[in-house]
Design the sequence.
């Protein structure tokens, strides 16, 4: 018999926490989970899922326009924004129920409230205290407001944008990471006037291929988004019904909403970690070793709160692998190499493997580059001036494909399949002898023959 109330106590019912809790319970150990906000964490409630629903919403505006080129008389005359928000909320509630049932059906005890570590094996939730052999922190991350005058009073962050009572007709976005660009594309497609402000000279960050960054900005500019590079917001103030946005170059913009998409930070405040001797990084991240252990070895952490790779599937993988090691007798670890990722901008971006810049830093001149820039068949009759970009990065000495990148419609769906090939060590010769599915956009990846670098 254990001397503890639980074998594993999980703090945070997001993706990583729920996965770890239910898999551990499946191994027969006694598990509890604490949550103070909602089941499913950021992804289900105020992240990937509702954001993807919004990208679908926005896509119908283009579908209606494009249909005329194919002979249809379809007009997107008006958007019932409150109806969409209500339907979106219904789906989020349904998913919350699924997550709750996953926990309950696997025998996980659920405790609602703020959880605080009061010892290396003790968790306090409200006025109750529980002991556990191991404690797992999976509290995720949260958006932050920049230190700009009026930002908190008159601006919003990504958490807020899913619950706006009205669709903004004029949106200013500060930040050109994936969150800023995705919402810029969504509201632009819905007919809003969109301005994007950023301090760098290119959109996205250096984890994306340089060609992708340049190509995406050109395509989004074509669609009517106004980019303001090497610019910052100095102040927001209210002017009647408008928000007046002051820029550092002396210009002002009027907006209905100002979205601050300037980053997220690990959600580690108030957990009692530092009092236990767990040192946090400057941004609040919880450092862990290969075993996901903190400085206190009975306390573990996975997901965005560790600030390694902030992706839902990574949190799921970390939580699952950890529990398999602890209770399943498996020597299994998550690989952080060749993690595919996507930006659901318009057009979308997806990638797996190294960028050209990363490949050249690692292999020098032993790199072959293949690129393709074309107008997809679907766009011809639609008379839409939108192009697709694809790129392969190959190690010339081994012929191994090191990186694969795409900007275009359905990029995530296409790259997900190719990611398996990259992880399996596919060579350019493997790509060349693969028969393409014709006609398709994806076949371009297996028909590129001419090196461009």
Sequence:
């Amino acid at each position: 018999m254990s001397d503890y109330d639980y074998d594993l106590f999980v703090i945070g019912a997001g993706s990583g926490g729920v996965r770890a809790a239910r898999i551990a319970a499946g191994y027969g150990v006694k598990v509890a989970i604490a949550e103070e906000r909602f089941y499913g964490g950021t992804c289900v409630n105020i992240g990937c899922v509702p954001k993807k629903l919004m990208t679908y919403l926005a896509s119908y505006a283009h579908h209606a326009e494009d249909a005329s080129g194919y002979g249809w008389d379809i007009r997107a005359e008006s958007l019932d924004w409150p109806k969409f928000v209500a339907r979106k909320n219904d789906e989020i509630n349904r998913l919350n129920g699924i997550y709750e049932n996953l926990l309950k059906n696997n025998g996980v005890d659920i405790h609602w409230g703020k959880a605080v570590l009061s010892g290396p094996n003790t968790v306090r939730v409200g006025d109750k205290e529980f002991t556990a052999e191991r404690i797992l922190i999976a509290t995720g991350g949260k958006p932050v407001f920049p230190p700009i005058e009026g930002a908190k009073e008159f601006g919003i962050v990504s958490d807020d944008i899913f619950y706006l009572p009205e669709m903004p007709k004029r949106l200013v976005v500060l930040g050109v990471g994936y969150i800023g660009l995705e919402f810029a594309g969504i509201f632009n497609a819905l007919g809003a006037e969109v301005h994007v402000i950023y301090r760098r000279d290119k959109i996205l960050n250096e984890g994306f291929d340089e060609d992708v960054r340049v190509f995406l900005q050109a395509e989004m500019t074509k669609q009517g988004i106004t980019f303001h590079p090497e610019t910052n917001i100095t102040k927001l103030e209210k002017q009647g019904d408008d928000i007046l946005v002051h820029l550092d170059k002396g210009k002002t913009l009027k907006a209905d909403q100002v979205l601050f998409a300037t980053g997220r930070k690990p959600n580690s405040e108030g957990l009692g970690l530092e009092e236990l001797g767990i040192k946090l990084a400057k941004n609040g991240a919880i450092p862990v070793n290969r075993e996901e252990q903190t400085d206190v070895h009975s306390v573990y952490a996975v997901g965005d709160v560790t600030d390694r790779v902030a992706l839902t599937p990574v949190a799921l993988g970390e939580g699952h692998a950890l529990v398999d090691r602890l209770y399943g007798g498996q020597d299994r670890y998550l690989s952080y190499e060749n993690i595919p990722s996507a930006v659901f901008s318009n057009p979308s971006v997806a990638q797996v493997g190294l960028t050209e810049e990363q490949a050249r830093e690692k292999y020098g001149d032993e790199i072959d580059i293949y690129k393709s820039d074309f107008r997809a068949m679907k766009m011809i009759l639609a008379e839409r001036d939108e192009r697709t970009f694809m790129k392969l990065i190959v190690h010339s000495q081994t012929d191994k494909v090191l990186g694969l990148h795409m900007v275009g419609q359905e990029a995530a769906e296409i790259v997900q399949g190719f990611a398996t090939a990259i992880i399996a060590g596919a060579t350019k010769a493997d790509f060349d002898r693969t028969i393409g599915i014709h006609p398709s956009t994806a076949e371009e990846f297996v028909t590129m023959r001419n090196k461009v670098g």
